[in-house]
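Fig. S4 source data, part A: sequence.
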Amino acid sequence: MRSLGKKVELLRIIAHPIRINILEELITGVKCVSDFEEFLDISQPNVSQHLALLRRYGVIDYYMDGRLRCYFLRDPIIPDIIKILKKDYMGELPAPACCPVTKKGKYPGERRR
């Protein structure tokens, strides 16, 4: 089980548009650096920096196929996180009945002063 600190660290590591795009691609299967260069439209050194960071934190790994580094997902939580990020939510949660905005109801707990 991940500690809260590890969960926060994981979210911090993946919280970049390029890294999210990389992870979305890796969910579909193994990719090499040139695959990422094509769809991300960034330089090979830039792609490699993002891959190295994800690898350093155990989110992804690679194997060698000749001269190619083939990257794949390691962390099983990533597909779930990406699925949630892609989900389209409609509207917002309703305000509570005791909300000062709606001016209805009373706070259900004990008030402390």
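Fig. S4 source data, part B ends here. The chain has one domain: 4-86.
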